[in-house]
Amino acid sequence: VDILQAPFTVNLSPTGCTGALIHPLWVMTSAHCTSQGPRILYAGFGASDRNRCSYYIKGRVIYIYPPFYNDSKDKSSESASTATTHDIALIQLSAPAKLSETVQIINLEEAKWPTGKNRNCTLAGYGGCYTQDALLNVGKLLATEDCNCVTKLGLLCAYWLEGHKPAQGDAGAVLVCDNKGAAVLSQDLGTSFCNDKKQAMTDKAAGEGCDVNNTIYLFSHIQHNLDWIQEISHYNKANKLQRNNIKYYDMFMSLQTSSLLLIFLSHLY
Fold it and tell me: What are the protein's UniProt keywords (predicted)?
């Protein structure tokens, strides 16, 4: 589709993930796209084809909500280990994005999810199943808090309706409901997960999820993480490290300085 249908969409290179511009200096994506990936990230803008971005801006700092790591290690119940409700990262850009017809900001939804309501939403991303498709695609999803056996506060799930089926490369894309960003794509599970977890994981490993209609797409609810998002993007100085609040990565540091910082962080946490 044309970038004009989702001008807030950002291509994150070289991770292969998708992001969303929420402020001229800030991009939102999934934490798992940045937590173990390369230290140098570039945000590409204005692209209907991720290989032909209008321009790139280097990332300066990545902020990852610490509960993301706690969720990832949570083995207290099977449902808790299936997804993280804090799979959100914020990337501060080294320079502000130049807004235009093809580069726009997506406003975030601050209201709570309507109780018991299913909503028709859209998801735009650069993902593909079996081909190296680098084109921007948009799919329609039915989003809800009722995620069957996968139950956790702050988790949303969605079912494919029509258009593009979310796939590898769409992680970090923002689910848009009523023209506002409501959630960030974390992962997908087969609906058989609730009855046969082993088979569901086997299907996912085989890449069959792209062709199976019975797939649950799991999202981190933005409103559930909104206080942290606002604190980091609006009030926090990029060079300030706050204990128990952020994970901090400065992409402009030398390798030696980076090593010292990682040692410092290991003592903090």
Answer: Disulfide bond, Hydrolase, Protease
* pLDDT for residue 198: 66
Q: What is the number of domains present in the chain?
A: 2
Whether cis (ω within 30° of 0) applies to the bond prior to 14 is yes
Residue 66 burial (C-beta neighbours within 10 Å; 0-12, 13-18, 19+)? middle
Determine contact, residues 125/18, Cβ cutoff 8 Å: yes
Least confident of 62-71, 144-153, 154-163: 144-153
Report the SS3 class of residue 247.
strand
Which range of residues forms the domain containing residue 245? 241-267
Same-domain status, 257 and 214: no
Distance of alpha carbon 244 from alpha carbon 103, whole angstroms: 34
The residue type at 184: V
Same domain, 20 and 142: yes
CATH number at residue 138: 2.40.10.10
Both 190 and 246 in a single domain?
no
Please report, as a single letter, which amino acid is at residue 242: Q
Are 68 and 33 in contact, with CB atoms under 8 Å apart? no
Gyration radius of the chain's alpha carbons: 18
* Whole-prediction pTM: 0.81
Place of tokens 């974390």: 186
User: Torsion over CA of 27, 119, 150 and 70, rounded to 10 degrees?
Assistant: 20
| Cα 37 to Cα 257: distance, rounded to the nearest angstrom | 18
Same domain, 154 and 48: yes
Residues 129, 245, single domain; the answer is no
Same-domain pairing of 52 and 130:
yes
